[in-house]
Amino acid sequence: MVTVSPSILIPISLIASMIVLMREALIIVGMLKGPILAKFERYGDDERFYYPVPRILIAAGVFALGIGVWIYPYVRLPLMPAGPGILLFFAAYFAHQHIDFARRHPEIFQSFPRWHRELREYTTRAERRRIAYMWLDLPLKTRLLYNSSDRAFLHWADMIVLATVS
After folding, report:
1. Which one of 60, 69, 88, 125 counts the least CB within 10 Å of its CB?
2. Considering the entire predicted model, what is its pTM?
3. Contact 91, 14 (CB under 8 A)
4. Which residues of the chain have pLDDT under 50?
């Protein structure tokens, strides 16, 4: 049986939580469009809601827990290893339980990334779904270009909408 020492789990958890936090930061600032466009691909009346708050809080909780356990032998404060992480986990649970509130107030919770807000203002559900599926057909270099430029991406999305007007 393979055993894993706790000393290796701490750096792995720190690296994994940093990757999740960086990914969510890239999505929020608009430099990674694929995960939000994937929410548009689903057929049906309801559109999946991009709500990063619980995921960010869980990743921050794992990071705080890892840092707390890592520095505990040097600091020795009560509740140092688990306190901040557990508080962030409770905040993530609270945020997940109140997702309906976030759905009712998209002006607050869907204001970032800016390209997402602008795209939702002038496109219908069917047009956003078509944009999402056309995104999958783009070559990697083109996706990287559109990820780095909101203006170019919105221009491309306008061309997709114009091409589908009957």
Report:
1. 125
2. 0.84
3. no
4. none
